[in-house]
Every structure is written in C-alpha cells, then in structure tokens.
Design a protein that fits this description.
The structure is a single chain. With 260 residues, the chain is α/β, with parallel strands linked by helices. Helices cover 44% and strands 15% of the residues. The protein contains 8 helices and 7 strands. Helix 5 (163-182) links the parallel strand 5 (142-147) and strand 6. The chain has a 7-stranded parallel sheet with strand order 3-2-1-4-5-6-7, sandwiched between helices. The radius of gyration is 17 Å and the shape is globular. Helix 1 (22-33) packs across helix 8 (231-239). It has a single domain, classed as NAD(P)-binding Rossmann-like Domain (Rossmann fold, 3-Layer(aba) Sandwich), CATH 3.40.50.720.
C-alpha cells in the first residue's frame, strides 16, 4: 500500500456543518475529492446546492440539509434527519461558527451571548452527541473534527465580541475531553485552529473595520492571510487513516501568527 492510500476516504460518509461556504466548503470538497460522500448543512439553499453540485462533479454523492445550526432545536432536527436518511457517518466536521458581533463585554446583552455560545459551542456539542454518538455506539471507527480558532488560544486584537474566544477555548477542551472518552472505541476527536483566512465574514470585517484586518496581517510571519483551500488537506489528514493515532490534538494553521 502506498502511503498516499492511507489518505483515501473511499466509501466513507461526511456530515459537515457550515459546509456550503468558505472554509467549510473547501473541506467538504477536499474530503469528497479523496472519495467520501457528503451531507452538507447550512442556512443558504443556493450555496448549499452549488457546493453539492461541485461535490457531485467529483463523482461523489452529495445531499443538503437547510438548517440554522445555531438554533439548538434545528441543529438536533438536522442531525436526526441525516441519521434517519443515511445511517451512521464516518466523519463529522463541526465547522459552523463565527464572531458576528463587535460588542464590548461591559455592554454585551445576555441573549446575544447565549446566541453566540449556541452557534459556536452548543452546535458542536449537539452534533458530536448525535452524529459522533452513533459512531461510538457502533464501536467505531470514526473521526470528529472541531473547527476551533487561534482565538481559543490567544485573544483577538482590537475587536470585541469575547463570546467567540470563550466558546472556541471551550471547544478545544471539549475536543480533548471527548477524545479521552472515545479513544477506546476507535473514535478520534481533534480540533483545527485556523488563524486569519479571508472568508466572507473576514471580508466584511475588512470593509467595516479595516484596522482590525491590517493589524492582524502585520503580525503574521508569513506575511498574509491563508486561503480557504489551505484547510482542505489538513481536514483530509485528520479524517483519514493517516491520522489513526492522532486524537485530542488542537492543530494550529495560522502562518505563524501565534509564534509571537
């Protein structure tokens, strides 16, 4: 067997949240490119259908579920719909999330705090409970990949909305705890911690708060933001047999930003 064969995902099934745009879309396409079928979940039907069409063009099956995963009831319903239609999955990527707000802590409304925690943390818990739980009940194997952030490790500069840092730090620790619990069943749980990638939300931040983006870019040793396609190979690695012995890791991909 070639070492590259260990990265193949033929016959596997992926469930990915926030999978129709940005980082989620690129991870979905990358995992489909190495053989997996995909269920893509997101809010916008047009982008869902476009991503599904691009996956099918790679010769893989693709289904869509339209749901707001930041709403716990919709999140659970989406998981149940997927399990009812497809049985258990081999790979789960909890990608949905975002800062969305720029509100100082002293002015942060409680309702907004809860909404942001549901988006960035509760959604990952619920999908892990349902989709990952099905992997555990069949005694594995399985791969859970949580998309955290370097802001779960370091604080973002010149920007508020600290529910984001809080949720992403909690997600990293949830990754470690679940990894410890599920390792005996052959289910690995890992986190990816992206740095600055010019996705649609960050393009919006660049328009509305250019000083935030310029300050961030100036602190990246490699000199620029990452491209969404850069995340695909790392997701493929963690989803594949090549990462069989990796669990509980929080892998940083940030052009060196957190080095100083």
């Amino acid at each position: 067997m070639s070492v590259l064969d260990r990265f193949r995902l033929d016959g596997k099934k992926l469930f990915i949240t926030g999978g129709s745009r940005g980082l989620g879309r690129e991870m979905a396409l990358a995992i489909a490119d190495v053989g997996a079928d995909v269920v893509v979940v997101g809010r916008d039907m047009e982008s869902l259908e476009q991503t599904a069409a691009d996956i099918r063009a790679l010769g893989r099956q693709a289904d869509t579920i339209q749901a707001d995963m930041g709403d716990p009831a919709e999140c659970e319903a989406a998981c149940q719909q997927a399990l009812d239609a497809h049985g258990t999955f081999d790979i789960l990527i909890n990608n949905v999330g975002g800062r969305r707000v720029n509100i100082p802590t002293e002015d942060f409304p409680l309702d907004t705090w809860r909404e942001m925690m549901d988006l960035n943390l509760t959604s990952a818990f619920l999908c892990t409970k349902w989709i990952g739980g099905a992997m555990v009940r069949r005694q594995g194997p399985g791969r859970v990949i949580n998309i955290a952030s370097i802001n779960g490790l370091v604080v973002g500069r010149n920007i508020a909305g600290r529910s984001y840092e809080t949720a992403k730090a909690a997600l990293i620790q949830f990754t470690r705890a679940t990894a410890a619990d599920w390792a005996p069943m052959g289910v690995t749980v890992n986190a990816i911690c992206p740095g600055g990638f010019m996705t649609e939300p960050n393009q919006r931040w660049a328009r509305e708060h250019p000083e935030v983006i310029s300050t961030f870019r100036a602190q990246i040793p490699q000199g620029d933001h990452g491209e969404p396609v850069d995340l695909g190979p790392l997701a493929v690695y963690l989803a594949s047999d090549a990462a069989r012995y990796v669990t509980g890791a929080a892998m940083v991909i940030d052009g060196g930003y957190t080095l100083w």
